[in-house]
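W.,

You were right to be curious about this one. When I first looked at the sequence I had no strong expectations either way, so I just let the prediction run and decided to look at it fresh. Below is the sequence, 164 residues in total, followed by the output.
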Amino acid sequence: MRGPYCPSCGQETKIALPTARQFLRQAAGRYVALDGRLWRTLFGLLLRPGFLTREYLSGRRRRYVRPARLFLVLSVALFAVLRLFAEAPIFVADESADPVSAVASGAGGLDVRIDDDLNLRFEGFGEVVGAKLTKRAEYFNRLPRQENGEQLFLGLCLAAVLLR
């Protein structure tokens, strides 16, 4: 065949996988259009409880975004919004203590302290929240030092991935 299209039927002859940018542009154009399926689905989901379920069970699925795809799109949107608007905690070394000790300070004088034995201490969280956090910290502090280190490492890795 000569050229990018079949001379008898008009079908494209060049078959190539789209790049990630092309794929996202096509997906965004399909779902975010003002008359697109995403807006119709969100309208039904938010303002007409049970409507989408009845439509789905009646076989009228083509007008709306499928449930798994809707979950994926909304999850990506949620993480994008969180990334744009959430404030990351500020980690500061506590110079008055050992180099191993650390403190994570947030807004309003809220502190999370970790001592040499990898024990947690919460300060400045108020009575109700502070009591719950202290109870959890006591349970955590009863664990062996090795397990405390593993848990802290996993938590920091998860926080780094979520804040990236």
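Here's what jumped out at me. The two ends are 48 Å apart (CA to CA). And, maybe more interesting for your project: DSSP finds six helices and four strands in the chain.

Coffee later to discuss?

I.
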